Amino acid sequence: MAVQPPWGEDQSSPENIISRFSYVIGGMSFMPLIGVPFGIIAAVWGLTKWNKGGKLLVLIALVGISITPITYGILGYFAFDEVGGTYDKGRANIAKSQLNTVTQAIETYKVQNGKYPKSLDILEASLPKDSFVFLHDPTLVDAAESKFYFYKLIDKNSYHIRAYGRDGILNTEDDVLPDQIKNVGLIANYTVK
Known about the structure:
This protein has two domains: 16-81, no CATH class; 88-193, no CATH class. The chain contains five helices and two strands, in the order αααααββ. The protein has helices at 20-28, 35-48, 54-81, 86-113, 120-126; strands at 150-155, 158-162. A hairpin with a 2-residue loop joins strand 1 and strand 2. Helix 1 packs antiparallel against helix 2 and helix 2 (35-48) packs antiparallel against helix 3 (54-81). The longest helix has 28 residues, at 54-81. The radius of gyration is 29 Å and the shape is elongated. The mean pLDDT is 85.
């Protein structure tokens, strides 16, 4: 004779037991984003078998589904809110690399046209359609505020370019400057007025 659990129902019969497969589906809900549909399926499955062990399956599914907003909330914090964190440093490294590429494009423009471009709009118009020269500042966190790097033609033989940095304000610690290159018109350590 089978021992009945203290809460009453005989769960030893096959129609009263939730299959292991349903728990596998519930466990898949712990995968961020793609686990949400599996969590919904497991939760519905648990609700249909509520009195037959479905309560645990619903609990597993709901905890698994909650992993998605928690994970993306943490990633969002590190990507957009944490000042000076890994993502800020990564965006600064990208900006420095891009600024060095833009400097080469500016020098190429001078060789082809005999003068430096007056603005980055003019430089952009001169670039090939599928160019790998990126003129938009990646250090600005607000995606709605896509801006070109700061560029200033100082005189006919020199120019300055920099990334605004996270704060979007020039002449602050988070500005990113290109590497100084000898024998070109770039003045890297220029104080913007």
